[in-house]
Design a protein that fits this description.
This protein is α+β, with helices and mostly antiparallel strands and 193 residues long. Helices cover 15% and strands 52% of the residues. A hairpin with a 4-residue loop joins strand 11 and strand 12.
Length: 193
């Protein structure tokens, strides 16, 4: 009797893994801001460099939740209370699961306090220890809709398979992943099992 082991190429598996990474990222950012705003080294927000209500340098937070260990690092967090937004600079999130680990990096991003939505911009790269890689310039998470998406060009790769398109839409509720626009797929080498 052979057991079917779901692969990352399965859209449901991919959608679930992306959901875990994004959800952990949202929790990490929110936790970081709460924890660091009470204990962090804080600079005055003089109007010359930023209109932020609070500026936190060298943010780093590590936690274990739901059997997943994660670590968030950011060079800087700027809290804009009237806008209900926190801007992050030089973001890196590491997620460690039993079977694999994930790393997501981006140059900047925003966390929207009321909705918990997140947008990461500029050189966004998500990689996993099993060889999966996602590259784009903007990646957005809408928590209420459980949607991860971008209207920017996207490139997904793993084990010699490369799929690129002009947009990505992952709907967790429906377990659907769509690469849209002008899509190109290239498969080289032999798949590993």
């Amino acid at each position: 009797m052979t057991l079917h082991k779901p692969r990352l190429s399965d859209p449901r598996r991919l959608a679930g893994l992306i959901l875990v990474v994004v959800a952990v990222f949202v929790v990490a950012v929110a936790g970081t801001l709460v924890a660091k705003s009470r204990t962090a080294r804080v600079e005055a927000t003089g109007g010359a460099t930023s209109s932020a209500d609070l500026r936190i340098k060298e943010v780093e937070l590590e936690e274990v939740s739901g059997g997943v260990r994660w670590r968030l690092r950011a060079e800087q967090a700027l809290v804009f209370e009237p806008e209900g937004r926190t801007a992050l600079k030089k973001i890196a999130v590491d997620v460690f699961e039993r079977e694999r680990s994930w790393t997501m990096v981006g140059e900047e991003g925003d966390l929207f306090h009321q909705t918990g939505n997140v947008e990461i911009r500029r050189n966004v790269v998500l990689t996993s220890s099993d060889g999966f890689r996602l590259e784009t310039s903007v990646l957005q998470w809408q928590g209420a809709e459980r949607r991860l998406w971008t209207d920017a060009p996207v490139r997904l790769s793993r084990d010699g398979a490369v799929v690129s398109g002009t947009a990505l839409d992952v709907r967790m509720r429906n377990d659907t992943t769509t690469v849209a626009g002008r899509v190109r797929a290239t498969f080289t080498g032999t798949p590993t099992r």
